Amino acid sequence: MSVNYGSKRIVVGAHYGVRDWLAQRITAALMALFTLLLLAQVIFSKGPIGYDKWAGIFSSQWMKVLTFTIIIALAYHVWVGMRDIWMDYIKPVGSRLALQVFTMVWLLACAGWGIQVLWRL
């Protein structure tokens, strides 16, 4: 005679919890600091804000590298959030896989486009 003290727990995507929580917080903090830096550059710039001013802000190499890092951080931040949403709310495995693949392709395309615009300046 066996005694069952509970049901077996099925965990999908185990061990993502703390790592993803921390990744979301770190990427959000990086994006917030970048936004403050960008706002400071815009607020303390002289003259009208136009294409030349924006191109000037992003023309230095350190700003391009920082912006590149933020684009990657943004893509990862969105991926973690969307993956968790798909895993939590979409139960059919095929639909969830299709949505995850679409999300990955979309995020890679958006990041690629952002980087292409950045390095074209």
Describe the protein:
77% of the residues lie in helices and 0% in strands. By secondary structure, it is mostly helical. It has one domain: Fumarate reductase/succinate dehydrogenase, transmembrane subunit (3 helical TM bundles of succinate and fumarate reductases), CATH 1.20.1300.10. Helix 3 (61-89) runs antiparallel to helix 4 (93-120). The longest helix is centred in the middle third of the chain and has 29 residues, at 61-89. The protein is elongated and about 80 Å long. The protein starts with 16 loop residues before the first helix and ends with a helix. The mean pLDDT is 90.
Give the helix/strand layout.
Layout: H1 17-43, H2 51-59, H3 61-89, H4 93-120
Question: Can you give keywords for this protein?
Answer:
121 residues; 3 helical TM bundles of succinate and fumarate reductases; elongated
CATH class: Mainly Alpha
The residue ranges in which pLDDT falls below 50 over 5 or more consecutive positions are none
Order of H and E elements: HHHH
Mean pLDDT: 90
Short account of what is shown:
With 121 residues, the protein is mainly alpha-helical.
